[in-house]
């Protein structure tokens, strides 16, 4: 048995290249004759002059009373009138009950002006009942430096199913 002959590959031929120096021709720079606008170029820039208002005669705007937390006051508000939240019909099916955390804004006169739900579990089941009751609560106002002030108070309400 004879093996077929393997073709011999031709090795590439290396050529010698000579380097020659060439010089590039550069085009002359463009020149443009622009008209000089003497009227605009020679006019001095006028900067507007701003005058600051005098604070001596101008009263500062009233920002209204600031709402503080109970940690910011000397004496926190005290609950005077408590209304028990009603158990909602939809809430009776939750054997473990529920919890609603409310944030109340208690005004300087002791009335609750705003009620917001911070969190609730189960969500939205007991919220309305807790809000309706909290709006009817009355407080002895918080005191700061001898004056009644507006504060926010976080109040947890627990609902239990009997």
List the secondary-structure elements in sequence, H or E.
HEEEEHEEEE
What spatial form do the alpha-carbon principal axes imply? elongated
Structural class: mainly beta
Largest sheet, order of strands side by side?
1-8-3-4
Distance between the termini: 103 Å
Low-confidence stretches: none
Arithmetic mean pLDDT: 79
Report on the biggest sheet.
4 strands, mixed
Helix content: under 10%
Number of helices: 2
The total count of strands amounts to: 8
Q: In percent, how much strand structure appears in the residues? A: 25-35%
Rounded to an integer, what's the Rg over CA atoms?
Answer: 43 Å
Which secondary structure elements does this structure contain, and how are they paired or packed?
Layout: H1 38-41, E1 68-69, E2 78-81, E3 98-106, E4 112-121, H2 127-135, E5 138-140, E6 142-144, E7 147-149, E8 151-159
Parallel strand pairs: 1-8
Antiparallel strand pairs: 2-5, 3-4, 3-8, 6-7
Short description:
With 162 residues, the chain is mostly beta strands. The protein has helices spanning 38-41, 127-135, and strands spanning 68-69, 78-81, 98-106, 112-121, 138-140, 142-144, 147-149, 151-159.
